Amino acid sequence: MPDLKLDIAIIPTYDVNTLAVVDISTYPDDPPNVITPTLEIDMPGFDPVYLTFAVQETNIFNSTDLGITVAGDEQPIPDGIYCFKYTINPADENYVEKSIIRVDKLQEKFDEAFMKLDMMECDRAIKNQSKVDLNTIYFFIQGAIASANNCATVKSTKLYIHADKMLDDFISNNCSCSGNNYVINFQ
């Protein structure tokens, strides 16, 4: 008989409106004898929420579930550092905690900028410069994720903000860059 080992995974939904948390715990009995499975989510800019958690399932939450909006007025879930705490009995000391940085809105903005790249009517140097810029932004996004995964929340937030600013600049400048960075550094 396996021992109780609580664990969760936060999986991508590829949707700015939803958050998915999966119970990947090992339970000593089948079906699990769980008293009160609860997921606490502490998200940026809001008070923590305590949600009923479906054991051995994928739990999908939207802005209403998270207490951000009212039913029928769902909005994108904010990006930022999220802390999760899963317990099956609030009176018990057995729980698991995880932290992540949510970058879904930033990723959506990046995807839009990336798609514009193929549609730009620019010369080769400018198009190549745009690819270099987008690769740099992508590395900042990945750096933010890696930092959050390693509990470096301040660094993660700085990298996220920098990537967001770079994306804003990229989108607003569209095709007006000079292409000099590519010509100087990559030819």
Layout of helices and strands, plus pairs?
Blueprint: E1 8-11, E2 19-23, E3 38-42, E4 49-52, E5 58-61, E6 80-87, E7 95-102, H1 104-119, H2 124-149, H3 153-173, H4 180-186
Antiparallel strand pairs: 1-2, 2-5, 3-4, 3-6, 6-7
Helix pairs in contact: 1-2, 1-3, 2-3, 2-4
Question: Can you put this structure into words, describing what you see?
Answer:
The protein has helices at 104-119, 124-149, 153-173, 180-186, and strands at 8-11, 19-23, 38-42, 49-52, 58-61, 80-87, 95-102. The protein has 187 residues and is α+β, with helices and mostly antiparallel strands. The chain has two domains: 8-102, Immunoglobulin-like; 104-186, no CATH class. The longest helix has 26 residues, at 124-149. Residues 175-187 have low confidence and may be disordered.
Features:
187 residues, alpha+beta, 2 domains, four-stranded antiparallel beta sheet, three-stranded antiparallel beta sheet, elongated, disordered C terminus
Query: What is the SS-derived class?
Result: alpha+beta
Described by the principal axes of the CA atoms, the overall outline is elongated
CATH domain class name of the largest domain: Mainly Beta
CATH architecture of the largest domain: Sandwich
| Number of H- or I-type helical stretches | 4
Q: What strand order characterises the main sheet?
A: 4-3-6-7
The portion of residues assigned to helices is: 25-40%
- How many domains comprise the coordinates? 2
Q: What would the CATH topology of the largest domain be?
A: Immunoglobulin-like
Number of DSSP strand runs: 7
